[in-house]
Write a structure and sequence with these properties.
heterodimer; A: alpha/beta; Rossmann fold; 40% helix; globular; B: 841 residues; alpha+beta; six-stranded mixed beta barrel; 25 strands; 57% helix; elongated
Chain lengths: 268, 841
């Protein structure tokens, strides 16, 4: 754990190019927030409000789960917050950056240096080995891979002996852990995980969630996770419930039971 | 990012190979052309260097027309040899003559060379000076002896001591072969046949008694050559010059260089056409693969790849494909050059053998062009790749920002119009480069516009297939309508290929019809005596007209000559006709002045094209120049309707023979009394002259058309490569489509589609693609052909013919080729494992 903290300090110095705030000040500021965020598809009668004016704050160093039935706007919220999709109106902030004001180049840099992604369908590049997939963000940035951090991640995630394998030669759990290492390799401010356990068996799911939990607890990683699964949501510090593009409720220190009860109440 | 590019390429070797194949073929063509012409150039250089290595100077007539090795020169008097020999420092001087002598093979047929000269020449006993190196037998010393070139002897089985008949300017004669010789180091001179006689016999046979064409001079060892050359020059009369041996070598190699340069350019044009078509194939393949890799590219964008990195990645892939293909093409090109050389020698063009020449220029041109074409073709797909939104990796929605079709059509329309304008400008200028550029722009413009009609046309073309094949045909038709852009792009390559083929077909048919028409418009004779030489422009013995006209049943005979002269300082072809009986054999429609009387009076007749462009009227005097008699002034005696067979300038025979050295007849026109068997009788009478043939007018017209068709055949063969590349493009697209629709095909199989039906479905799609490209290509090609023909109207292509039957055949062939292109992808689709296909994502 000591080494992890040390590494994190190193990273602070490097990322300072976009964020001059002191560690203490940053600790207080939210990792990301949305202000009256709206996203509509179609026009006239056929208008669909995927996001109907959402105000939400994702705290730094916390693990936040986003829950809601299909079509509630979970994924749209995540895409807009991560700069993958443009909101129709409203503001999306990552740290102190208003990402609505960033051009494509700025968004690319944001994704590369400050955000990590984990998807339901793993989304590894099929032609690259596991090791190459992990270092891909660093390679793209033209950065030298921090060997110590790389070794630590693949060790913690248990894929050290799988590094020369192609994604097709690995189990779903191994692929997702590989994707997880890739999300962390550039030490992002924030990780967005979109149903990361959706394609995993219960054992692999538990391992994955435990790892995400540990990265929050041990080195203060900020994580936003979209999920369907009450058990998965129970690993989070806080659960935000969405329905029809609105935030309808939230819950601190959830347990599987309390989440299930709440979801049942929502009729999902 | 490079790692992603390279790993991606390695993971799709088949795709890489199919994409690269187009470039490989094009570059092979370029490399082969360069290596072949460089090698020939080099071997001819060393051959001539070898032949003239001992000759210090050559004395010859000053060039009358032209320059260097191809100039027209007058002979010099024999007495000059003694004059030159007396010059201090001269070791030896030998005169030589060159003229017409054609061997008759043991089977009685004249040995023709396919265009190379059939030379008779004087055998120079001085081995130091002679170009011939005796390898067997002895020198010719009597008027009955001849030395034959080794190449001809080997090919026709002649041996020393045998007798051989030789066609000459005068009557055919029989000689004894006393020796066999090489030309320098070669068995013969690029397919030319050589007959060497002793000097005085050669002079008599070539009609140059008391004269030499050249005098070759060797200087004494140690003599100052500059002084010797100056002293020889002082001893020479006006109109005779002395040049160094090196000058002669340079002139000879320059003349060869020009001929090879023409061959080089002609072949390169077809190589570039092939590469242009290849470019379309690559554009299409990359477009499809970028589409298929949308998720992967979007993922790279999510994990932090910039637009620039994605753009470079696609272009980098193209660069690697281009480089690898170009290198393979270079290697194959060397093999192709060896093959071409073998092919030429198979046709009897014995080329001097020499080491293959592989110039740095060949490598550079091949790499630059091969990689360049691939990169340019990949730019548009790379720009599409850049427009992929990152969110495409995680959502199913269509995120590619398509360029609005209207903008695309506007651009395509502008490019098309500019192309048409350039083409029109190029054809009227005339500037061949503009014509080429115009055609390229037209093709690009049409390719951009084609998606607009792709869906309705595919629907119409596919209707009969749907009716014929039921569900399979209907699905194939719908697949081809699914993406108009892809359908249009895939067909574009075939469109270009067929457009060129169709343009050539229109051009050829018009040329053929025009040639026939010009025969009808110019000749009223029943029989035409002309040379059997393949080139069709050879001359024959001056005794032929006499023999032919004295055959019973022949009522009139007109001898025709042809040569070159200078008209207002430009070199032109001149035709001469015997004026005595021309009214019965020749049709000359004069628009002003008179025909036969003016010719008999020694006037010059010009056609209306020349009269108009040069503003000439009857009675005017114009400056002309003849090689033999120098500058003259001629009166315009008449102006006639243009005719390709007659040409632009016409004189009477009496005038002609006075102004040309040893004129030989080019044709004899015979009028008969109509009785049967006259043609056979004339042929029998001319049996001793195997280099002439007797044809009726219909036969003559047919052979004119046959010549055009032979040329067309060659052009079609060269264009075939472009069509093959277009087919590879279709194969590639279908393979990628099958791969893309694995899931869908699996589903169809799961619900009961038979393998046979899957194959039929893929084949239907392929046929629709091919026919679509062919129809557009044929329409554009016909337009191009008509434009070309109308631009050449003044050059004698007076009839515009659209060969509908040929075009229909092309369309059917295209459909069959489409069927062929589908065979591999169809088999692959039919073999898909149903379960695996459905499981595939």
């Amino acid at each position: 754990m000591g080494s992890a903290l040390h590494l994190r300090t190193t990273k602070r110095g490097r990322v300072a190019l976009t964020d001059q705030a002191l560690p203490a000040a940053r600790a207080g500021s939210p990792a990301a927030r949305a202000v009256d965020l709206r996203k509509t598809y179609g026009t006239g009668q056929a208008t669909v409000h995927a996001l109907a004016g959402i105000d939400v704050t994702f705290e730094r160093g916390r693990f936040t789960a986003v829950m809601g039935p299909s079509g509630s706007g979970k994924s749209t919220l995540m895409h807009c917050m991560a700069g993958l999709d443009r909101p129709t109106s409203g503001e999306a902030w990552v740290g102190d950056l208003d990402i609505g004001k960033l051009d494509d180049k700025g968004l690319t840099q944001l994704r590369r240096d400050r955000i990590g992604f984990v998807f339901q369908s793993f989304n590894l590049v099929p032609t690259l080995t596991a090791g190459e997939n992990v270092t891909l963000p660093a390679d793209l940035a033209g950065k030298k891979v921090d060997k110590e951090w790389f070794d630590y991640l693949v060790g913690q995630l248990g894929i050290a002996d799988r590094l020369t394998h192609r994604p097709t030669e690995m189990s779903g759990g191994q692929q997702q852990r590989c994707a997880c290492a890739r999300a962390l390799i550039n030490r992002p401010d924030l990780i967005f995980a979109d149903e990361p356990t959706g394609n995993l068996d219960s054992n692999s799911s538990a391992e994955m969630l435990a790892f995400l939990r540990r990265s929050v607890t041990e080195f203060g990683q900020s994580i936003v996770m979209v999920t369907h699964d009450p058990r998965g949501a129970s690993y989070a510090d806080r659960v935000v419930f969405l329905a029809d593009g609105n935030i309808v409720d939230e819950m601190r220190d959830p347990t599987p039971e309390s989440v299930l009860e709440r979801v049942g109440g929502l009729g999902a | 990012m490079w790692r992603v590019t390279i790993k991606g390429l390695l993971a799709h070797k088949l795709r890489l190979a199919l994409t690269g194949l187009a470039i490989v073929l094009g570059v092979t063509f370029i490399a082969g052309t360069f290596v072949l012409t460089d090698t020939l150039h080099n071997t001819f250089d060393s051959l001539f260097g070898n032949v003239y290595q001992n000759i210090d100077f050559q004395v010859r007539g000053v060039a009358q027309f032209g320059s260097g090795g191809t100039a027209t020169r007058n002979p010099v008097p024999e007495s000059l040899v003694a004059t030159v020999q007396r010059v201090p420092g001269v070791e030896a001087a030998e005169g030589s003559v060159t003229g017409y002598a054609q061997y008759i093979a043991p089977d009685g047929k004249a040995i023709s060379t396919g265009g190379a000269p059939t030379l008779g020449l004087s055998f120079d006993p001085n081995a130091q000076i002679s170009a011939l190196r005796l390898v067997q037998g002895k020198d010719p010393t009597t008027p009955q002896q001849v030395v034959m070139d080794l190449g001809t002897a080997q090919k026709y089985g002649f041996k020393v001591g045998q007798s051989v008949r030789i066609l000459l300017q005068g009557p055919t004669r029989t000689f004894t072969i006393v020796g066999l010789a090489r030309f320098g180091t070669a068995d013969n001179l690029a397919g030319a046949t050589l007959a060497a006689f002793d000097t005085s016999t050669a002079q008599a046979l070539m009609g140059e008694v008391g004269q030499f064409d050249t005098i070759n001079v060797v200087a004494q060892p140690g003599a100052d050559k500059t002084t010797v050359q100056r002293d020889i020059a002082r001893a020479l009369p006006r109109g005779v010059e002395v040049v160094t041996g090196q000058t002669v070598v340079n002139e000879a190699t320059n003349a060869i260089g020009q001929a090879l340069g023409f061959l080089n350019t002609a072949l390169l044009v077809f190589a570039f056409i092939a590469l242009f078509v290849g470019g379309f194939t690559i554009l299409n393949t990359f477009s499809i693969t970028v589409g298929q890799r949308t998720r992967e590219l979007a993922l790279l964008r999510i994990v932090g790849a910039s637009r620039r990195q994605v753009f470079r990645s696609v272009l980098g892939e193209a660069a690697i494909v281009g480089l690898v293909s170009s290198l393979i093409g270079l290697g194959l090109g060397v093999l192709a050059a060896i093959g071409l050389e073998k092919l030429l020698s198979g046709f009897g063009v014995t080329l001097p053998s020499g080491p293959l020449v592989f110039e740095a220029r060949t490598v550079i041109v091949c790499l630059v062009v091969g990689v360049g074409v691939t990169l340019v073709a990949a730019i548009s797909p790379a720009r599409r790749a850049v427009r992929i939104a990152p969110v495409a990796a995680v959502s199913a929605q269509q995120t590619e920002e398509e360029v609005p079709l209207r903008r695309r059509f506007t651009r395509g329309g502008i490019i098309f119009v500019v192309g048409v304008a350039l083409l029109a400008w190029g054809l009227t200028a005339p500037a061949i480069a503009l014509v080429g550029l115009g055609a390229v722009l037209i093709f690009v413009g049409v390719a951009m516009l084609a998606p607009a009609v792709a869906r309705p046309m595919a629907s119409v073309i596919g209707r009969p297939l749907a009716r014929l094949l039921g569900t399979s045909g209907r699905l194939g038709r719908e697949n081809s309508m699914r993406s108009p852009r892809r359908t249009a792009q895939t067909s574009s390559a075939l469109m270009v290929g067929l457009a060129l083929v169709s343009a050539i077909a229109v051009f050829g048919a018009s040329l053929s019809r025009s040639a026939t028409a010009s025969v009808d418009n110019a000749i009223s004779a029943d029989l035409i005596v002309s040379t059997t030489n393949n080139a069709g422009n050879g001359n024959f013995s001056e005794s032929v007209p006499q023999v032919a006209s004295s055959v019973p049943g022949v009522t009139a005979s007109t001898t025709v000559y042809g040569d070159q002269f200078e008209f207002r300082s430009s070199l032109e072809s001149l035709l001469a006709i015997d004026t005595k009986e021309m009214s019965q054999t020749v049709i000359l429609s004069t628009t002003s002045g008179s025909g036969a009387p003016a010719l008999a009076a020694g006037d010059l007749l010009v056609d209306t094209t020349t009269a108009n462009s040069d503003h000439l009227t009857v009675g005017e005097s114009v400056p002309v120049k003849f090689a033999l008699t120098g500058p003259q002034t001629m009166r315009i005696g008449g102006i006639y309707q243009p005719n390709a067979l007659v040409g632009h300038f016409l004189v009477g025979d009496a005038f002609f023979v006075r102004h040309f050295q040893n004129p030989l007849p080019g044709a004899v026109l015979l009028k008969t009394d109509g009785s049967t068997g006259v043609q056979q009788a004339v042929a029998r009478a001319l049996a001793p002259y195997p280099n002439v043939k007797v044809q009726s007018r219909a036969q003559f017209e047919a052979s004119e058309s046959a010549q055009v068709n032979q040329l067309l055949g060659l052009v079609y063969a060269l264009l075939a490569l472009a069509v093959v590349i277009a087919l590879i493009g279709i194969v590639n697209t279908l393979m990628l489509s099958v791969f893309e629709r694995t899931h869908e095909i699996g589903l169809l199989r799961a619900v009961g589609m038979k393998r046979r039906q899957v194959r039929a479905m893929i084949r239907s799609e392929s046929v629709i693609l091919a026919v679509f490209g062919a129809i557009i290509g044929i329409i554009i090609g016909t337009g191009l052909g008509i434009a070309l023909v109308s631009a050449l109207h003044s050059q004698g292509i007076t009839n515009t013919v659209v060969p509908t039957s040929s075009l229909v055949v092309f369309l059917i062939l295209a459909a069959l080729l489409g069927l062929l292109a589908a065979s591999w992808p169809a088999r692959r689709a039919a073999r898909l494992d149903v379960l695996a296909a459905i499981a595939a994502d």
